[in-house]
């Protein structure tokens, strides 16, 4: 006997998850709809590897600047540091720079795949998760940023979320202008980054939580303390006045201009927002779908201009039993400096990323994504072990006709084989015992209809006697009978 003390305990690492066939099927259906929108806009697929050289990814992950913190890293045989990608944007920048001469400019692509964060896992916070990105590299105007926001809105509509979302748009140049007006910005980039990341938590922590992070710091419910930016009260008030600015059109832009006063960077950002708002209006995207919102920051350091987020506006119950807005399921912005790390000339770029797992969860809550059991294969039961060649021939005929099918490969009897077919969610089973074989017949049991019919019987004996949804057909008519049943 095996020494149980030496057995390895099967356990999933924290921050990772297994996916069932139903989960995969539901996600694939969602991704197909997203792809259709991206392709309608003229974007083509590109795939990059999971690993990149760490220097290629750069030091852009929030809250870290070490090669093996925040990202999962290793050294290859020539002692080069490589890291699992933490997003799909930095690898795209490398791909574009490496293939610069042969790619069309602007270059429009989309990518879907897993990304990895070496961070503390928690509820809804994973170390491996899927993103779906679209990017335009080589276009500098507000038109390309506005197009991204419109495509985000159209994607949400295609997923059945019309009326349940808003795309929020801001510009990092305006915020940079605010920071420079209080003595930060380029004068103190490290502290400015802390301020940006604090504002990025506004939807989760609220104004009071952000105020604490802008000041001395904040202690969360677990007792963990996050050091703050160390701003004084006047600086904090100016930053929060910016993030709380509201309204539409010229009144909002007038307020933003007052906040950045004579700062050239900030004023340029306001004008870019004004140009984008005009494009939204001309294309028929009202503020109920796309709106200017100064509270949007985006935590990654590489954004240089417009930034945007998709926020789902319907309420859900959180782990504390409170009703809260579902929140962000994706976002992006302009990152003009990322590709230029590899090229001497400036290369403008803009794009956005959808959090696939989070969006799938939202679609389940709204009934727009059904994670139902995937229909399994037709199962051919093995009634006589010396006749497996006959059963295999049946399976081959079904497969050649385009029907999912398998022969039972275990060693159990008929009852266990039927239980197996149920667990496989088989739509039908094929039975050929000695009696059927002698008559040139096979028995087909419709598992779906049988399950429905079984609800009307009061006992197993009564059900077995009635044999609901079970038919005998000539062996030569097996494929046609199964086709009719599945139809």
From TrEMBL:
GO BP field: histidyl-tRNA aminoacylation
Oligomer and partners: Homodimer.
Record-linked PROSITE patterns: AA_TRNA_LIGASE_II (PS50862)
Catalytic activity, reaction form: tRNA(His) + L-histidine + ATP = L-histidyl-tRNA(His) + AMP + diphosphate + H(+)
Keyword Transmembrane carried by entry: no
Name of the protein in question: Histidine--tRNA ligase
Subcellular localization(s) per the UniProt record: Cytoplasm
One GO molecular-function entry: histidine-tRNA ligase activity
Keyword field: Aminoacyl-tRNA synthetase, ATP-binding, Cytoplasm, Ligase, Nucleotide-binding, Protein biosynthesis
Binding site for L-histidine: 87-89, 117, 131, 135, 298, 302-303
Family (UniProt): Belongs to the class-II aminoacyl-tRNA synthetase family.
Enzyme class, spelled out: ligase
Keyword rRNA processing: no
Source domain of life: Bacteria
GO cellular component, one term: cytoplasm
Pfam families: HGTP_anticodon, tRNA-synt_His
InterPro entries according to UniProt: aa-tRNA-synth_II, aa-tRNA-synth_II/BPL/LPL, Anticodon-bd, Anticodon-bd_dom_sf, His-tRNA-ligase, HisRS-like_core, HisRS/HisZ, HisRS_anticodon
Assigned EC number: 6.1.1.21
Organism expressing this protein natively: Paradevosia tibetensis
């Amino acid at each position: 006997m095996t020494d149980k003390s030496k057995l390895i305990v099967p356990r999933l690492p924290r921050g990772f998850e297994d996916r069932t066939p139903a989960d995969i099927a539901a996600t694939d259906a969602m991704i197909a709809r997203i792809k259709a929108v991206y392709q309608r806009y003229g974007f083509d697929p590109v795939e990059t590897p999971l690993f990149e050289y760490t220097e290629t990814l750069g030091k852009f992950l929030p809250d870290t600047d070490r090669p093996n913190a925040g990202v999962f890293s290793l050294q290859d045989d020539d002692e080069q540091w490589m890291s699992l990608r933490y997003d799909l944007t930095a690898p795209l920048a490398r791909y574009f720079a490496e293939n610069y001469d042969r790619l069309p400019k602007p270059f429009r692509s989309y990518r879907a795949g897993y990304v990895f964060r070496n961070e503390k896992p928690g509820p809804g916070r994973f170390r491996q998760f899927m993103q779906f990105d679209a990017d335009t590299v080589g276009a500098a105007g507000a038109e390309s940023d506005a197009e991204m926001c419109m495509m985000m809105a159209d994607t949400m509509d295609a997923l059945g979320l019309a009326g349940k979302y808003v795309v929020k748009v801001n510009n990092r140049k305006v915020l940079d202008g605010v920071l420079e007006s209080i003595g930060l910005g380029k004068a103190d980039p490290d502290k400015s980054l802390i301020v940006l990341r604090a504002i990025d938590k506004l939807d989760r922590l609220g104004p009071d939580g952000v105020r604490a992070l802008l000041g001395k710091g904040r202690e969360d419910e677990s007792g963990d303390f996050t050091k703050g930016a160390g701003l004084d009260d006047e600086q904090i008030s100016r930053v929060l006045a910016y993030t709380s600015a509201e309204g539409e059109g010229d009144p909002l832009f007038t307020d933003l201009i007052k906040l950045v006063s004579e700062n050239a960077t900030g004023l340029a950002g306001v004008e870019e927002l004004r140009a984008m708002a005009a494009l939204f209006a001309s294309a028929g995207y009202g503020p109920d779908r796309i709106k200017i919102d100064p509270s949007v920051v985006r935590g990654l350091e590489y954004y240089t201009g417009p930034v945007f987020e998709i926020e789902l506006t319907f309420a859900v119950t959180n782990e504390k039993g409170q009703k809260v807005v579902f929140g962000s399921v994706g976002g992006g912005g302009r990152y003009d400096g990322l590709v230029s790390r590899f090229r001497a000339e400036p290369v403008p770029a803009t794009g956005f990323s959808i959090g696939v797992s989070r969006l799938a969860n939202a679609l389940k809550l709204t009934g727009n994504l059904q994670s139902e059991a995937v229909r399994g294969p037709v199962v051919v039961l093995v009634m006589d072990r010396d006749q497996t060649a006959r059963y295999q021939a049946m399976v081959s005929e079904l497969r050649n006709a385009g029907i999912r099918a398998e022969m039972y490969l275990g060693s159990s009897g008929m009852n266990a084989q039927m239980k197996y077919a149920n667990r496989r969610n088989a739509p039908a089973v094929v039975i050929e015992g000695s009696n059927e074989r002698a008559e040139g017949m096979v028995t087909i049991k419709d598992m779906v209809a049988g399950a429905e019919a079984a609800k009307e019987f009061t006992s197993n004996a009564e059900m077995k006697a009635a044999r609901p949804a079970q038919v005998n057909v000539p062996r030569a008519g097996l494929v046609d009978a199964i086709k009719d049943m599945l139809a």
